[in-house]
Amino acid sequence: MVIRTCVGCRQRAEKSTLVRVVAGRSATGVTVEPDPDGTRPGRGAHLHPAERCLQLALDRRAFVRALRLEGSPDTEALTDWVRNEAQRRA
Fold first, then answer.
1. In what residue span(s) does the YlxR domain sit (predicted)?
2. How many Å apart are CA 1 and CA 71, to the nearest integer?
3. Among 25, 36, 49, 82, which residue has the least CB neighbours within 10 Å?
């Protein structure tokens, strides 16, 4: 059993219940993207796939700190993924 901490709510949970997020690059700058398979290279952070945890992480700028980013990354891809995952689970 591998334990990780959610960057949103700061609760410790099994890695299998969290989604890994990584920094990516786009034409417009840095993005924060989901890595549900956990296979993309680079530094990662973990998040519960819940809108509440996503909003807490965004409010606290947790992705910037955890992924060691500069500026304000685009989180649209992650936001869409979390919303779709929440609808799928409901």
1. 4-72
2. 35
3. 25
Residue of 65, 40, 49 lying closest to 16 (CA atoms): 49
Measured CA angle at 71 (ends 30, 20), to 5 deg: 50
As a whole number of angstroms, the distance between CA 55 and CA 60 comes to: 9
For residue 72, report the phi and psi dihedrals to the nearest 5 degrees.
-115, 110
Q: In sequence order, which residues have a C-beta less than 8 Å from that of residue 61 and are 6 or more positions away? A: none
The mean of the pLDDT values for the chain is: 94
Provide mean pLDDT across the span 2-23: 97
Q: Alpha helix (H) ranges present in 1-90? A: 51-59, 62-66, 76-89
In contact, 30 and 24? CB cutoff 8 Å: yes
State the Cα–Cα distance between residues 73 and 64, nearest whole angstrom: 7
Q: In the structure encoding, which two tokens stand for residue 83, read together?
A: 């919303």
